[in-house]
Each structure stands twice: as C-alpha cells, then as structure tokens.
Amino acid sequence: MDAKIELVHSGQTMTRTACLIACLGLAASCRRDSGSPAAQVPAPYKSDIESLCDSVVRSGADQLTPGNRPLAIATWLGQHLQTEEAHQYLVKIQPLDGDAKAHALDAEALRVGLPGCALSAEWRTSAAKP
After folding, report:
1. Where do the structural domains in the chain lie, given as residue ranges?
2. pLDDT given at position 123
3. Do the Cβ atoms of 53 and 12 come closer than 8 Å?
4. pLDDT at 98
5. 48 and 85 in contact (C-beta within 8 Å)?
6. What pLDDT was estimated at residue 24?
7. Cβ atoms within 10 A of the Cβ of 56, count?
8. CA nearest 97: which of 126, 72, 70, 77?
9. What pLDDT score does 6 carry?
10. How many angstroms separate the Cα of 48 from the Cα of each of 3, 5, 62, 97, 119?
11. Which of 7, 28, 63, 86 could pair with 81 as two cysteines, CB 3.0-4.6 Å apart?
C-alpha cells in the first residue's frame, strides 16, 4: 500500500516538475525574443516606413492647419513611397481609426527598427479632437 502512495506522489511530483520546466522554457524564450534585434526587413521597405513616420514634416503638413494635414500627407506619400509592400501596409491599416491605427503604425515602426513614429502621434492627436 505504501508503495502505491509513493508511486502516486512521485507521479504528481514529476508532473509538477515537468510543468515548471515547460513554464521556465516558455518564459526564457519570450525574454529572448523581446531582447532580440528588429526583424530583418528589406532596406527599401524600412526606408518607406521611415518616410511614412516622418511624413508630417517631410510633406510640410506640420505647417498646415490640422484639417488640411491628411490630404498633404496622403499626396506626399503617394509620390514618395518606393515599395509595393509599403503601399499594401497602408491599405491594410486604412480601415483602422485613431489609437488602433496609431498603435499598428507604432508596432510596424518598432518591427523595422525605428524608435518611434511621429505620424502615429499625429493620428492620436487628430482622433482626440472632436
């Protein structure tokens, strides 16, 4: 009888130990991923995301009233984005609004290795205004 109790106890201990090891492995892989460098992306696409993020200044929209900025930015981007991937990215996030759109752009900027994105701040500001 004592042998059965030891066997059950031993099985429970092994299960807990296996779960602990799995959790530690998962935590270690998540930590390793968060510290890894930006994903390898083609230089022209990264350049386009930089242009997208800096488009408020590069287009001159920062000198315009807030109501006139979107058209100036859109016109400038249409003439200055080099890659089809960047155009497709804009199409992908186009249905989003305000914070959701800004968050998506921030995430893409970080993914390609940029520290931040001024256009996403512009989108947050314009979404906050009535």
Report:
1. 1-36, 43-128
2. 87
3. no
4. 87
5. yes
6. 33
7. 22
8. 126
9. 58
10. 68, 66, 19, 21, 13
11. 86
Average pLDDT, 10 consecutive residues per value, the chain (130 residues): 55 44 36 51 96 96 93 94 96 93 96 94 73
Q: How many whole angstroms separate alpha carbon 57 and alpha carbon 90?
A: 18
- Which 8-state DSSP code applies to residue 64? S
94: its two tokens = 């186009």
How buried is residue 61: exposed, middle or buried, by Cβ count under 10 Å (0-12/13-18/19+)?
buried
pTM of the predicted model, to two decimals? 0.67
DSSP H helices, the chain, are 2-34, 43-53, 55-58, 69-80, 84-93, 98-111, 118-128
Token pair, residue 82, equals 């080099």
